[in-house]
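Researcher: I'm preparing a figure for a lab meeting and need a structural model of a single chain. I don't have an experimental structure, so a prediction will have to do for now. The sequence is pasted below. Please return the structure as tokens so I can convert it later.
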Amino acid sequence: MKLFANVFDAWVFRKTDCRIEYLLLYTSQQKADRYFNGGRFWQIPSNAIEDGENVTSAIARLLAGFGLVPSSIWAAEHTYAIYNRRFCCMQLIGVYAAEVGADDVRLNPEEHSEYRWCSFEQALALVHYRGLKDGLRSTLEYITGVQSPARELKLL
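Model: Understood. Here is the structure written out token by token.
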């Protein structure tokens, strides 16, 4: 079995007047039927770094597909391993955080049926995979929940 280490999650966040909000995406029924035995769930933007591409370019490319432009990208100091049944392989997934300023998100209806901006507590309650929960906690601990995130974690 192959192990892919070029996969990443992006905890996309925005700052409002009174709080930080995180972007969650709900899988479409079509995607759920095709890959997850009909099970639908909340997830975050995720993709793979292509050959010759760096992580900030990969995250910007991913977010452009949602009509979003990152103003900053941070390493969230977390990685987790999963078996990805969609691609029939093991993956090591690096976690990053990307700040955006937009309200609207463009969805591909074959992949996602809706999106939601959530507080930390709401996002933690809605995602049910441990890797996503731990990645969100790391994002809060290192980037969105501190007054001054460590400059060495800022990639863009």
